[in-house]
Amino acid sequence: MRLRRWHLVVAVVGAIAVASAYLYAASGKSHVVGKPEPVTDGINVILDLVAIEPAEHELTVRIELVPRGSYRNESDDTVAIPLRLTTKSVVEGSVVTDIPAGQAIGNDYKLIFPIDGDPQKYPVDRYEYSYEQSHRPRVFVPAPLLKIERTDGNLIRPVPVGLWRDPKGLEGWTENWDLSTDGPVVKLRLIMDRSGGSLAFVFIVLTLLVIIANLAILVAWSGYTARRPVETGFAGWLTALLFALIPLRTNLPGAPPIGAWIDAMVFYWIEIAVLASLVTYIAAWFKYHDIPDYTQLNAAKAARRAELEAAESVKRR
Length: 317
What we know:
alpha+beta, 2 domains
């Protein structure tokens, strides 16, 4: 029977390990559901995610332009025609960058644009950059991201644009990209979810915290009901545990500020359980530890005092 139990434990642990490996392998990738083809005479765009700030609702993207055909000087790899890059911005609404002819190819541009999402739903929070159609509520389509034009003197004309390669995502996230072009405008619908590996890590840590809280309750109750001797070392352990859990919560991968749903549903209750265990254990210490007997110590002090007084009296004679 005992051997069968060990076989069951090994099977459960193995199943968890396999499931974790599958979640890690199947998630945390960039999925491109739609994209424009590269252009042979125009500007191709490279998009790579750099960072996400859920609490600020901001996403940073690196943009690189790859001119092709008449827009590129093949002899020195420079831009052949003056260009104007217009991008969205969280702070300024839109940013216009003029790229003069003769500028070396390979410069990148950072774009910070707003995203919709609720960080309080961590770790199952989702973020999206899209546009909701006014005549069709709850129908989301790709939203304008950037526009590339050519500046010939006072004339501004559209430029053919395309996508040079698939975008690169962020570690710990699963992205779904839907890219399209409308003349010189690149449109994007981006949906971001936390990867299966991140979710598994968060839920494992929360499970461990729940187990630790239950162990604290078990230790405190065992001492209070006199099933185990009360030792002051456990009070120190409970006190340290009460404050050690806070940095563990704040250092979860991509964790938002205190106040998310995992705090209201899990973390606050764990802290309350540990605090209650500490109070219960201290009550048990007061309940079962007698007041020390200081009779012998007081007698020794009195004898020492008498010896000192006798020595003083001898010196006076």
